[in-house]
Amino acid sequence: MYKKITVFMLALLAIGNFIPAIAQAEDVSIQKTWVRMRGRITQWGASPAFGWICAHAKLVNVTDISREWAAARAIWTQHQPMVSTHPPTENFTISFFITKLIDTTLVELNYSGYDFYISGLWNVYNVTFAYYVDGSGNLLGFSMTLEALIIQGEGELCVLNDWHDFQLRIDGIDLLSGDVIMYAVGQWEIKICDVNGDGVGDGKVDIHDLVRVARRYGSMPGLGSYDIEMDFNFDFRIDIGDLTTLAANIEA
Ligand SMILES: [Ca+2]
Ligand SMILES: [Ca+2]
Question: What ligand is nearest to the CA atom of residue 202?
Fold first, then answer.
């Protein structure tokens, strides 16, 4: 009998120890922060450059354990703007550079003197498009060549001077830099396909975003009003693939 009581009391003690653990589990705090940044590339090493960079990130903190996600890509040329206001009248080529973050090491706000910071591995390519047009400026066809310059190079995107400037350092190429033209940091979800209102978005993906992307349908670097922010699959063309992605994300 004595043994039975002892066992029962030990069981109670064990339950007693277990209850606070459950109570603590209910105190889990989850904090989510979304970041969007878009910049204009103006400088590549000592030379002027023309292009854009865009980055999205999500920082999640679950009871002091951080998890991050980030996507970033950039496109730039050395000699010519990538947007054409008039249809081309003859065949032409355009050579440009692109980079894409392919693996993320660190994503932080207010880190080491920077307003926003992403480090990771980047691929860099030199891309050349040859466009064939008729006398009316209609695109008859094109060819693309892609030359890998850097594969999995270590690099970091740093936003500084109170979100005014950015620098993109990638091992093996010169420093890219320019101005931040838009950024958003919030506790609400910033959706990649929310691109209306000059790219700032309005918090939801709907017909307004679809119209904005559809207006750039068929545009490519150097041809029409190509916009990296709306080239969701980053295949250098705003086409049915991007519209399909947007349509799949439209909210009721
Ligand atoms: Ca929208
Ligand atoms: Ca595309």
Answer: 1
